[in-house]
Design goal:
Elements lengths: L9 H21 L15 H5 L15 H35 L7 H37 L18 E6 L2 E6 L3 E3 L4 E3 L8 E5 L19 E9 L3 E8 L5 E10 L2 E4 L3 E2 L7 E7 L4 E7 L5 E10 L8 E3 L3 E7 L4 E4 L4 E11 L5 E13 L5 E11 L2 E11 L2 E9 L11 E11 L2 E4 L4 E2 L10 E7 L2 E7 L4 E9 L6 E12 L2 E6 L10 E8 L5 E7 L5 E6 L8 E8 L5 E7 L4 E6 L13
Antiparallel strand pairs: 1-2, 3-4, 5-35, 6-7, 7-8, 8-9, 8-10, 11-12, 12-13, 13-14, 13-15, 16-17, 17-18, 18-19, 20-21, 21-22, 22-23, 22-24, 25-26, 26-27, 27-28, 29-30, 30-31, 31-32, 33-34, 34-35
């Protein structure tokens, strides 16, 4: 049995740790398996430990759980060794302190003894760190091998991916996140159960005294909404409140199990109306908000923000809005890219006082939310020139590229034989601090006009679905493959009919990261009907198949809706009903069509 004794050098400490590793290796070799432990907090080899079978827990004499018994012995020895080190350190401090009290002030002996005392403290600190690392490995390994034990605190455990440490009266243990099952070290994704879905509820929030908006107990009438998600459980909602002179309000939330804890409602800007609110968030919680200050002929604004890490984690620190575009009357689109970069898409038109159109284009701004929250505009570009652009939509294709969908019409009436550009799509990519725009956009259904709202979603690598409301009052979808090198777009399935009848709006959610069969999930609001949704499978050849209606819990007509996907697979859905109430739901996999059950 190993005993950690007094050791006063870093190399000696590392040798003692290596001896521990070799001891565990030897014990596993007796069971026919090998193991290499990683560094503390770098996640010990969870897969290697968790894959050990029950037979590997027997030594040659047939004793069950020989490895756990060995770890118990190592734990006891490590504790005894640290106690011995502490005792020896205290004796050394007393010896050096006594000698120091007998030497002359300012002498060379005093300097030498002071240095020796400092070195002794440093050696003891190193020994404590080494012992803590040893205990980390021991507690984690014991839990992986199924021992019915807990650690004194979470600092002694390195849990697996999609798991976290929880503390209770018995101690610390690893537990899989919601919508994952396992032992806390290996966690696999499963369809969320009913416990993982929150029922419909309003978004509350205590009104801060510094805000000038109406008291929280007064009725709030909203009209537009945007939601963003990041991390395992973070949610942000950006709302235009009609009852508050169309001012914008931001609310941050944290999903805790099946419920959401909401922070205070924050006024985005006390002097500006916020029509067409849009919101995105980086994985680190840096926020970008966009809006225009009037329904028509407004000024477009962007601002950055970050989650307050020094105090209330459910409150954001926001920068001042910056002007980004003029003559705005359509909702802009934000797409989050890597390195806290954001693409802002907008349509701009200029007219004379008599109403004659003088200029029109589709614009794209590349912005960055820097540390602390301020937003910096890196550059402005035009992806469409000379045509009236509207009905913008976009989706991130990779962390550094997007596809933009939009409606483009000539300023003048065109001849009957000219192809329609009302279902256009173009590729944009980020190259350093600049945007690159592919010069060859494509057009779907070029023989038709009268197209309406649209949205894009990513369903697989380099594959998107372009969902839109067609001219014949039908909701359709087309599957498009984007070549990763040439950026050329190829239509795999054109104008597949999803739903009869027109709709006020539609919204698509990207599912490419789910690790399941490629599928679409589209939410739409038909006239004077409850808000509906439909899920479809995408075949290996890029064809839309097996479409099914999704029965979910709204059962009412909605003015606006927005959704984001949490890392555990659930959807965070925020919406405004016809009464102006802001509502929120967490939807598990079974709520959006049981897409895990499509089959091959």
């Amino acid at each position: 049995m190993m005993l950690i004794g007094m050791c006063c050098s870093q190399s000696c400490l590392r040798q003692q740790q290596l001896f521990l590793f070799l001891a565990v290796l030897a014990s596993l070799a007796c069971g026919g398996r090998s193991l290499v432990l990683g560094r503390r907090h770098a996640s010990p080899p969870v897969s290697a430990l968790a894959s050990a079978s029950s037979s590997s827990l027997r030594n040659p004499d047939g004793k069950v759980y020989a490895i756990v018994d060995l770890l118990d012995g190592l734990q006891e020895s490590a504790g005894e060794g640290l106690s011995a080190i502490a005792k020896r350190h205290q004796q050394e401090k007393e010896r050096l302190g006594g000698a120091l009290s007998q030497v002359a002030e300012g002498s060379s002996d005093q300097s030498l003894l002071t240095a020796a005392l400092t070195q002794s403290d440093e050696d003891f600190s190193e020994a404590q760190v080494a012992a803590t690392e040893v205990m980390d490995y021991i507690y984690t390994a014991k839990a992986m091998f199924g021992a019915n034990t807990t650690a004194p605190s979470c600092s002694y455990l390195a849990c697996g991916i999609n798991a976290g440490c929880v503390m209770d009266a018995a101690g610390a243990r690893c537990q899989c996140n919601p919508c994952f099952v396992g032992d806390g070290f290996r966690c696999r994704n499963v369809p969320c159960t009913a416990d993982g879905t929150a029922g419909m509820a309003t978004i509350p929030g205590v009104e801060p005294a510094t805000n000038t908006i109406s008291p929280s107990e007064a009725p709030v009438e909203a009209a537009e909404i945007s939601v963003a998600t990041w991390g395992q459980d973070r949610i942000a909602v950006f709302v235009r409140e009609v009852s508050n002179d169309n001012r914008g309000v931001l609310v941050l939330g944290k999903a805790v199990g099946a419920e959401v804890t909401w922070g205070q409602r924050q006024l985005v800007d006390p002097s500006l109306a916020t029509f067409g609110p849009v919101l995105v968030a980086s994985p680190g919680g840096r926020l970008t908000l966009g809006f225009r200050d009037a329904a028509k002929d407004g000024v477009g604004y962007l601002l950055g923000g970050h989650v307050n890490t020094m105090g209330n984690e459910l409150q954001a620190v926001l920068s001042a809005p910056q002007q980004i575009a003029q003559a705005q009357e359509h909702r802009m689109v934000l797409v989050q890219l890597q390195s806290s970069r954001v693409v802002c898409l907008y349509a701009e038109t200029h007219k004379t006082q008599a109403g004659r159109l003088t200029a029109a284009f589709g614009g794209a701004a590349l912005a960055e939310v820097v540390s602390g929250g301020p937003l910096r505009i890196l550059g402005k570009y035009r992806f469409e020139e000379g045509l009236v652009v509207s009905d913008l939509a976009a989706v991130a294709l990779t962390p550094s590229s997007i596809v933009v969908g939009y409606k483009a019409k000539n300023r003048q009436k065109v001849s009957s034989g000219e192809p329609s550009r009302e279902l256009s799509a173009v590729w944009l990519g980020m190259d350093g601090a600049e945007l690159v725009i592919d010069p060859h956009p494509i057009a779907l259904e070029p023989e038709r006009s009268g197209m309406q709202a649209r949205d894009l979603s990513l369903v697989a690598k380099d594959t998107i679905v372009y969902t839109y409301i067609g001219a014949s009052k039908v909701i359709k979808a087309s599957v498009i493959h984007v070549d990763p090198h040439s950026h050329q777009m190829t239509i795999l399935d054109d104008a597949h009919e999803l739903e009869q009848g027109t709709a006020q709006y539609l919204h698509s959610v990207s599912l490419a990261s789910s690790g399941q069969i490629p599928a679409t999930f589209t939410i739409f609001q038909k006239d004077k009907e409850p808000c509906g949704a439909k899920a479809c499978r995408i075949s290996a050849k890029g064809r839309i198949a097996d479409c099914r209606a999704v029965a979910w819990r709204t059962n009412q007509e909605l003015l606006d809706i927005s959704a984001g996907r949490l890392m555990d697979g659930r959807f965070a859905v925020a919406y405004v009903d016809t009464q102006g109430s802001v509502m929120f739901q967490l939807l598990g996999a079974q709520d959006h069509g049981a897409m895990l059950d499509f089959g091959e």
